Structure formats: structure tokens, C-alpha cells
# Entry
Amino acid sequence: MTLIVRSESPSPDRSTVWLEGRLDAATYAAFDEALRDVTPLLDNGGTLVIDLSALEYISSAGLRSLAQLRKQVHDRDGRTLLVNPQPQVKKVFDIVKAVPVAEVFASVGELDQYLDHMQRQMTAPGG
Amino acid sequence: MRLRIPNRLEDVFLALDRAEGALDRAEVDASCRADVRLVLEELLVNTVRHGYPDGRDGNIDIRLEVEADVVHLELRDDAMPFDPLQREPPDLPGDIARRDIGGLGLHLARSIASEFHYARDAHGNRVVIRFDPSDEPAL
# Structure
């Protein structure tokens, strides 16, 4: 199995990318290529959600791609949030302390709650 | 499983699939299969990319054996001398986007393996690795 990348950019402040299969030294270039079309759709300060529910496997080559992507979004004042890493991916993240724990969510529901909370904080009077 | 592959990236990935198939047939659990695949990918990709700086053709021998839930892996190559255990562990600041990323692959391989030995003899580099299915990596 290789890698399948799907994406949806319903609004300029949020894009979601779904990964399926393996993100490794054989597939990272396809991932980089696919994301080159997605990131320009995101406003400065926007949120890029990467759904890892169907990603079975990641290696250091995949970690490098994710890191570059996070840096690229971060440099435009945006953030990258990761959802639902599976056991192998979670193990690899843990070993290399890949991402701040606050940016990884166990489920889409948990992520939505967090984003709603952030939204309310930004719009609350005196906020 | 015994396999000899040329030092090319496409052959590395064919070998990974063969190895995973062999482990599957030996009823090794999914988590241990993924561990073996990761260690194999990191070490083989590293050897192919950096082991032959003069661009010559080389060979890598892979031996994989399962014995009472323990997986034994042996890799031999004719690349330039390289001991993966001599590399310093990378600095891990808790956000890979903030650091220059090198050495992550070897760090992963060493962390996931239950035992990791290196030797160099007249044939070249030799790495012997053991995977215990129940082992959790040292964090």
C-alpha cells in the first residue's frame, strides 16, 4: 500500500487533509507535492488540520515532511493540528517528541471542541 | 527470510514488503511488524543514501528469523564503515519543526530495537537486532 492524500478547504481559515496508508521515504514526495496545492488556500493565521485516522505508518522521512509543513504554516502565523494518530504513528511521535502535546487531538470531536473554545475566546467581549 | 538486494531505494521498499509478508505468515503481531518495518526502512535507506558516496554498486543482505515471538534481524552490507550506535542521540526539543532534522531515523531505530549490536568484519558492516514483542521503547 502506498499513500492517499485527500483534502478539503471549506474556508480560507481552515483546511483539512486526510492521510491514508504510509508516509515514508517512498511516499513523502507525493505528500509534499499534494500539500503544495493545499497550503496556498489557507489564509495567514489559518488552521491546517491533518487527520491521521487512516495513516498506518510513518518513518523519519514522513516526520521531516510533517515538520516542514508545520514550519511553513507556523511562519504564516497559522497552526497545524493533528487528529487521531494510530498506534504506530503515536509511538513514533512519542519517541522523537515530534509535536507539542497540545497540538495532537484524539478525535475530531475533541478538536472541534478546542477550536470552538478558541473561537469563543477570540470573540468574547474584553476577550 | 534471506534476501540480498542491490543498494537502490526501490529495492529497499520491495525488501520491506517481503519482510512484512514473512512476518505476517509467521503470525508476528501488527505492532511488532511495524517496528521491524520501521527499523529496516531507517537503516536500509540510510545505507543506500550515505553508504556508497562513490556511487558504486553494492549489496545488502537481510536475514529475518522468528523464534518464539522474538524477531531476529541481521543486516550485512559492503558499504563504507558505519556504526549506527556511535551517533549521538539527537537533541529533541519537543517540536521537530524547530530543529534541524537529522539523526531522527537512527534514533528511532535504536529506540525501537530491544537489542542492537554492530560489528565490522572483512565482509563489511554487520548489524544484529532483536525485537521483543512486549517491549515498549525507552522514552
